[in-house]
Request: fold
Amino acid sequence: MNNKARSGMQYELSVLESCRTVLGDTYTGTELKSRSEFLTVFLDTIPLPVFYKDVCGKYLGCNKAFEQFIGKTREEIIGNTMPDTWPKEFAEKYESMDRELFETPGKQTYEWQITLSDGSKKEVIFHNATYSDASGKTAGIIGVIQDVTELVQAISLLEESGKDLRSILHSSTESIILIDVSGIVLDANEVAAHRLKTDLEMFKGKNAYDFLAPEVAENRRKMVCKVIAEGRPIYFEDERYGATVLNSIYPIFDKDGKVERLAIFGMDITAARRVESTLQNHEELYRDITGTALDGYLYVSFDGIILEANEAYCMLSGYTLEELLGMHISDLEANESYEQTATHICKVIESGKDRFETKHRTKNGNILDIEVTTAYSEKTVPGFFSFFRDVTEHKQTEEREQHLKKVLLAIRKATRSIIRASDPDVLIRQVCADLTATPGYLDAWIVLADEKDHIRPSASGIGSEREIIREQLERGKYPFCMISALENNGIIVIDQPDPNCGDCALPCRHVQMSRMVRRLHFEGRIYGILTVLVPTAFAHEKEEQELFIGIADDLGFALHKMTTENA
Reply:
């Protein structure tokens, strides 16, 4: 092919303009996965070789035409780079062109001669375009390969002697027309005549513009004039009877370098247009579902690397999209070790899907309860389409309900003891045992006070610290929480650890645990102090505090009654 024709050989398929990541997806674990499978089947019906790969140059997918074209199976292609797939001399060229495209994202067209696995040589045009991820960042390349061997041969024959031209004309599956500078048809094939809705014998010798609508004919004349004036080919597309045809007008020069004839080639690219529409529809569906989903979404490779995330998961985790991409799923996992996560991945691959609960760690260190729906797919990049629902509040509600049931049961038991008891020391021992029996409270302590509000060393509770507390009280060393309760009429809540507690012997130095304290009083007199240990998550709840105040006030009344009766 001469330099003039070679410089103008550009075939731009708009399918490449809007294609992005071609990934199947599953909101429910099945819906988008089935759509991804449909897309794979659809691509396999396209006669043009189609492929797509990531920014590292690894092939993510291809159709059957691409497999047949390079003589390798899909399993031998996906996951490999160009040096693993093509001969060295071709791979270096392709990698160089890919780097240029990544440096300037958009579309790219170039011609190259390749040798296929059967030894045949082909003139091909690569039509490549970058695609982006959800954040708009370049994520890879999608390409279509066009075999233009016949076209190159025809141009060569036309510029030489014209021998064997007729055999090429009538063996080509695409339309070829040869005209002079005025538009008279010198030769053509059946495909060209059919596309113009005429007979070949009626077509030859006539003016080609007469077979076009007036406005179309005028536009074509202008194009031909431009080709003659500039000596370079022109490319344009036609919509004819529901089909899309890519047309090329090539100048044919005489021995003096003057344009004397023109070759018009028409290539049916309807299938490519359908690829564009289908890929774009699937891409839009994919983005709509993952982008608008209330649940977080991650696409995780089979070895646990996060390849994609939606905005919902970014907000859930506190990480930006850039921070999440490339992280390992175990970096977020707070319930399983790296080894356990790897084992879990293997189980999901084996079963195909899973639904389970786990815990994820956010960027600021918070731990969330997460419900995961995931499905494994090998149709594109082998990996997992996973959705993550934050069920922390739901789990907390369930835990709160269970905790309150235990507290109510403990208080019911303590109330019975209050009604039956007649001795203060017996009462406080029994009530402490009741409050920790369910266990509604993790431990409970009660100390009594004399008529001057001085705490008496008659502490009662559970655990080995009982005697230590008693000794401290006898020495007049009162815990910070008890001093606070004597000074305040309301409920005291001290979260652990608290620096004011110092070396207090009360067994409440547990992270995420709190001490609730209230004085036992009635009609202005203090009879003692009640303190219990509860999870911090519940200690500040209004309902929790109201129950605690209730039992403390009942105890205050009971101690008042016993003191009055004994007096």
In short: The two ends are 121 Å apart (CA to CA). Residues 1-35 have pLDDT under 50 and may be disordered.
